[in-house]
Amino acid sequence: EWRVHAEVRQREPLLHLLFAAPFERAVLIVPTQFAEKATGTTSMIGIWASLFLEIKEIGPVSKESFIPLPSVGSVALMITKKPTHPLQHIYLQRDKKAKNLLISMLKTAGITKRKAKEKIASLNLPKTTLESVIARLPAPHLAEFISVVTQEKCF
Fold it and tell me: Does pLDDT of 6 surpass 60?
């Protein structure tokens, strides 16, 4: 059973660790601005977190709860691990080009490489997205990629 009690200055790396950590539930107190990024769909951390974690805001934490007083507001977040899902494969293989990742996912689903390439051509994703490494895609392109993969059931 994992229990963490600490102030964490590098919050994004902590969330990345939680993607693979064996835990059921965590409570984090984070700056309000980071909570917005982690629960939103316009930042990379928010998009990745949505694949692995259910993040709910418990509520604000008073500045008077800290010594010394912080200059920014804080909120408490309840984080629950989501069940394993094929879309998590995108994060785990984020060092691959989008098209190669799709070929791999479709082949795992039992589709031949030739049929996979035909399916990818029909997905209406920009060539620049397909030729980019997943980790380097801008957040809007990553969100579109995940949306298309989900709609077309490429897993």
Answer: no
Residues 116-133 pLDDT 10s: 999 999 998 999 999 999
CA dihedral 124, 132, 100, 83 (to 10 degrees): -90
DSSP state of 132: S
* Distance (Å, whole) CA 139 – CA 42: 6
Q: How far is CA 151 from CA 57, 75, 124, 133, 147, in A?
A: 28, 34, 12, 21, 6
pLDDT in tens, 68-117: 888 999 999 999 999 988 899 899 999 999 999 999 999 999 999 999 99
Q: By C-alpha distance, which of 95, 96, 103, 93 is closest to 123?
A: 103
Q: What is the pTM of this model?
A: 0.79
Q: Rounded distance, CA 31 to CA 24, Å?
A: 23
- In the chain, at which residue ranges do the beta strands (DSSP E only) sit? 25-31, 53-61, 74-81
